[in-house]
Design a protein that fits this description.
With 213 residues, the chain is of the alpha/beta class. It is 32% helix and 16% strand. The chain has a 7-stranded mixed beta sheet, with helices on both faces. It is globular, with a radius of gyration of 17 Å.
Length: 213
């Protein structure tokens, strides 16, 4: 069976339970199934393990976590970096090209852009004094990624994860990434000439690099 992997990373420093809740919702699993994904791999950080354990409690002992035909696994962080996990989304002999879903930390974005796979970036709007939304909007405007939003995701206790009360636009963003893969742009960009957006991508990236993770 040909694998197709969706890799989700929330970064090393800040919790981002809202993103984890959204990708563990039934609506998102249904979107993955419809697009023939086979695996969901989560880098869930220091506090996200409990959300994956909620799924695990409803899985028979000794069996892998599976929802809608999607095999689910995760880990807190990889001290050697996430290159291997991101490369697992690239097409190979037994693997179709998948997608990376990332928080809007500049380091994670740059890693995914260099690999040149479809990328959905979801800003963590709970963080103070950051430029994540601005960065995601600018890169999406220039065609490098899909901007995913969680404004409509509501805060819920972890016991409700399986009941899918989490409206977000991530299923739509996942569908958009399928079209986006056909027109991926190479990174780094050609910086000759004027910035076509007029907003200074280089400046945004340079400022955001203070939050590299």
């Amino acid at each position: 069976m040909v694998q197709k992997i969706c890799f989700v990373t929330i970064g090393a420093t800040a919790s981002f339970d809202e993103l984890l809740q959204a990708v563990l919702s039934n609506a998102f699993f249904q979107a993955l199934e419809a697009l023939e994904y086979t695996h969901l791999l989560l880098q869930y950080g220091k506090n996200g393990k409990k959300l994956l354990e909620e799924l695990d409690t409803s899985t028979a002992p000794g069996r892998k976590i599976n929802r809608h035909g999607i095999e689910i696994s995760g880990f807190d962080f990889n001290s050697k970096g996430l290159g291997q996990e991101m490369w697992s989304t690239k097409a190979a002999q037994d693997r179709a090209e998948g997608v990376v879903i990332s928080h809007a930390g500049s380091g994670s974005i740059l890693d995914a852009l260099r690999i040149r796979v479809p990328l959905i970036v979801v800003p963590n709007t709970s963080l103070l004094n950051n430029h994540q939304v601005e960065l995601a909007e600018e890169l999406a405007k220039q065609g490098y990624l899909v901007h995913g939003r969680l404004e409509s995701v509501i805060s819920v206790v972890s016991s409700t994860v399986l009941s899918d009360p989490l409206p977000s636009d991530l299923p739509a963003a996942l569908r958009a990434s399928e079209a986006h893969r056909k027109k991926l742009q190479a990174w780094p960009p050609n910086n000759r000439g004027a910035d076509p957006s007029g907003t200074g991508l280089a400046g945004i990236m340079a400022e955001e690099m203070g939050f590299y993770d």
